[in-house]
Amino acid sequence: MNVLDRIVASTRDDVRRRRDELPLSVLESELAKRGDDRPFSEALTLPGVSVIAEHKRRSPSAGAIREGATVADVVLAYEHGGAAAISILTEGRYFGGSLDDLREARRASALPILRKDFIVDPYQLYESAAAGADAILLIVAALDAKLLVALYGEARALDLDVLVEVHDEDELASALERVDADVIGINNRDLTDFSVDIERTFELLVDIPAGKTVVSESGFHSRDQLDALERVGVDGVLVGESLMRAPDPQAALRALTGADGDLGELPH
Length: 268
Description:
- The protein is an alpha/beta fold.
- The chain has a single domain (3-32, 43-257), classed as Aldolase class I (TIM Barrel, Alpha-Beta Barrel), CATH 3.20.20.70.
- 43% of the residues lie in helices and 16% in strands.
- The protein has helices at residues 3-21, 24-30, 40-43, 71-81, 99-108, 122-131, 145-157, 169-178, 199-205, 223-231, 241-245, 249-257; strands at residues 50-55, 58-59, 63-64, 85-89, 113-116, 135-139, 161-166, 183-187, 213-217, 236-239.
- The strands form 2 sheets. It has an 8-stranded parallel barrel with strand order 1-4-5-6-7-8-9-10, surrounded by 6 helices. A two-stranded antiparallel ribbon has the order 2-3.
- α4 runs parallel beside α12 (249-257).
- The protein is globular.
- It starts with a helix and ends in an 11-residue tail after the last helix.
């Protein structure tokens, strides 16, 4: 199995375990306690390229990232640095995240929060909503067509925005034809081997109809790169590892967004 297949298989095992520990009925009862609405999609439609800044503890390819920092410290730095939204990577076995990370981020920041995980079961949608997520990620490569449609519809019914992630032409066609996704994420990282090619965004963008919100994911570390995305009409960019590794994430994000008039470059 490739990396994506292994992660999806382990995710299914973890979901079964969590469902035994916390029945779906309990999660459903917790939905009434959800806090204020923070529209994720709207945050990506502001002028310029909106930055979704990600909290990520580790990755299969890079190992541990920024050990010792709290989620609250990181997301507050992102908020003060000009992020439009926060992404919290909650997958545990490979990325070291958890729903507790999402809950801490929700308490610390007023920004919309994306739960970034490998969503393969409706149970995870209820987990996401109960924990305070405003949006979830659906990875087309991890889902068959029927499950993609079911999860997308259920997420919208729970008032969760959905970032539908694609990596090639077939996956983009599925996102458009199966669910008519409003927000499309183009992942420049190949999840089968974790290689990155930022040209992937430019190649797929020409096939996305006008009126869709487009987010480019992975491989960005300079303001020049974001300027190039803005020129071709990309609405948002998801940046994680380069910000997490920066000595001062707030200053790094301000440089990336151009908030200080500094065409900065992050370590990579």
